[in-house]
Amino acid sequence: MGLFDRIKRVVGANVNDLISKAEDPEKMLEQAILEMQEDLVQLRQGVAQAIAAQKRTDKQYKDAATEMDKWQRNAQLALQKGEEDLARQALQRKKTVTETATALKTSLDQQTATVENLKKNLVQLESKISEAKTKKEMLKARITAAKAQEQLGSMVSNMNTSSAMSAFERMEEKVMMQEARAQSVGELAGSGLESQFAQLESGSDVDDELAALKASMLPPATSASQPQLPAEQTSKPAEPVDSELEALKKQLDQL
C-alpha cells in the first residue's frame, strides 16, 4: 500500500469518526422522518398528477370511441343514399379516429397501471412513516434510559466510596464513644450512691468500736459495801495509755 493510500485511509477514518460522534440519534431520527414525510408529499403530488392524466386520457379515449361510432353511422348512411365516395371518406375518417383511440387505449392502460403502482407505494410509505414514528418514540425512550444509565454510572465511578465509608465509620465510632460515656456516667452515679451507703455502714462500725474503746478506758466501778477511803488514801488509777493498750490487745485477740 502506497503512502498516499494510507494517508487517504487515515483521513477517511478520522472524518468518519468525527461524523459518527457528531450524529445525535434523536436528531437523526427526526431528520429521517422529516425526509420521509417530504417524500410522502411528493409522492402524493405524483399520484394526483397521474390520476389527473389518467382521467384526461380516459376522456379522450371515450371521445374517440364516440367519434368512431359517428363515422361508422355516416358511412352507412352515405351507402344507403348511394354516395359511395362519401361513404369511403367517412370510413377513412373512422380509420384515423380508430388509430387515435387505439393509441389512447394503450396510454390509458399504462397510466392505470402507473396509478395503481403509485397508490401502493403511497400506502407503503404512509405505513413506513407510521412505523418509523413508533420506532422513533421507542428509540428515544431507549436513548433517554441509556443516557440516564451512563450518567448514573459516571456518578458512581466518580464517587469516593472509601472516603464515604470512612466518614460512616468515624460517625459510628463517635456514637459508640457517646454511648460509652453515657454508660460510664450512669455507673458512676450508681457507684456514688452505693459508696455513700457503704460509708454509712462503715461509719457505724467505727462508732461502735469507738464506744467500746471508750468503755474500756473507764475505771472499774467500786462496790457499794466497800467503805470509801479518804481521798488521800485511794490507790493511784491506771494510766489511760495502758488501758487503751489493753483494749486494743483484746480487740486483736478477738479478730
TrEMBL record:
Keyword 4Fe-4S assigned to the entry: answer is no
Compositional bias annotation for Polar residues: 222-236
Task: Quote the biased-composition stretches of kind Basic and acidic residues, using this chain's numbering.
Answer: 246-255
Region Disordered, as annotated, extends over 199-255
Q: Give the coiled coil ranges.
A: 61-149
Return the InterPro entries for the record: PspA_VIPP1 (IPR007157)
Record's superkingdom? Bacteria
Q: Which residues cross the membrane?
A: none
UniProt keyword annotations, A-Z: Coiled coil
For this chain, the family text in UniProt reads:
Belongs to the PspA/Vipp/IM30 family.
Q: Which PANTHER family match?
A: MEMBRANE-ASSOCIATED PROTEIN VIPP1, CHLOROPLASTIC, PHAGE SHOCK PROTEIN A
Q: Per its record, how is this protein called by name? A: PspA/IM30 family protein
